[in-house]
Design a protein that fits this description.
About 80% of the residues lie in helices and about 0% in strands. The chain starts with a helix and ends in a 6-residue tail after the last helix. The longest helix is centred in the first third of the chain and has 28 residues, at about 5-30. It has one domain (about 5-60). The chain has helices at about 5-30, 35-60. By secondary structure, it is mostly helical. Helix 1 (about 5-30) packs antiparallel against helix 2 (about 35-60).
């Protein structure tokens, strides 16, 4: 990632936010929707989850930043 700890923090917050969006969209789509729109939102939700997983993976394995 980057050497700036604050930027790493904000990037990790984006990853956590994408996870939250994924959960909310999945619950909404499964409870309230039917047909094409349901599968479209579930696909968007899955993409958000994959992107969030990549962000978290990169943030965690980048290691601590120098002080």
């Amino acid at each position: 990632m980057t050497n700036d700890p604050m930027l790493n923090m904000w990037i990790s917050f984006i990853g956590m936010g994408l996870m939250f969006v994924s959960v909310v969209v999945t619950i909404f789509a499964k409870e309230k929707l039917h047909g094409f729109l349901r599968y479209f939102l579930l696909t968007i939700s899955f993409i958000c989850l994959v992107v969030a997983g990549i962000i978290v993976f990169l943030t965690v394995f980048a290691g601590p930043t120098p002080e």
